[in-house]
Amino acid sequence: MSHSCNDNSCSEGHHHDQSDACNCCCHRQCDCGCHNKEKYSDQLIELADEAWMEILKEKIKAEILKKSGDHLTQMAQLVNEANHRRWQDKIDERKNAENFEDKLSELLFKQQK
């Protein structure tokens, strides 16, 4: 038997009111009061798969660093330098625009006197 948040019965055959907490095993691990679609053992297996992939990812990173670490360091330095210049150019451009606006305001203010 399927169950939705609005259903007043559970797969165990228990009938309960929305205000009445159901204590049957199908509701014990569910945060919203609905049935868990997965068994707890399936959730643990999924968690183990995720952990395995995380460890594998860390091992892959370590291998990449062994083989290409120096090259990646040089690449990171190059990207960092280019990014720094790009931001410096943006800052300089903004300063130039502000200087232009200041000078233009001064000129317009002088003309109004």
Topology:
Elements: H1 40-112
Please describe what this structure looks like:
By secondary structure, the protein is mainly alpha-helical. The protein has two domains: 1-37, no CATH class; 38-112. It is 65% helix and 0% strand. The chain is elongated, with a radius of gyration of 32 Å. The model is unreliable at 1-7 (pLDDT under 50).
Keywords summarizing the entry:
113 residues, mainly alpha, 2 domains, 1 helix, 65% helix, 0% strand, elongated, disordered N terminus
Short description:
The protein is mainly alpha-helical and 113 residues long.
The unreliable regions are 1-7
Q: Give the structural class.
A: mainly alpha
Task: Please tell me the total number of domains.
Answer: 2
The biggest beta sheet, please? Answer: none
Helix content: 55-70%
Count of helices? Answer: 1
Overall pLDDT level: 81
Backbone CA Rg: 32 Å
- Cα separation of the termini: 86 Å
In one word, what is the shape? elongated
Give the helices and strands as they follow along the chain: H
The tally of beta strands, per DSSP, is: 0
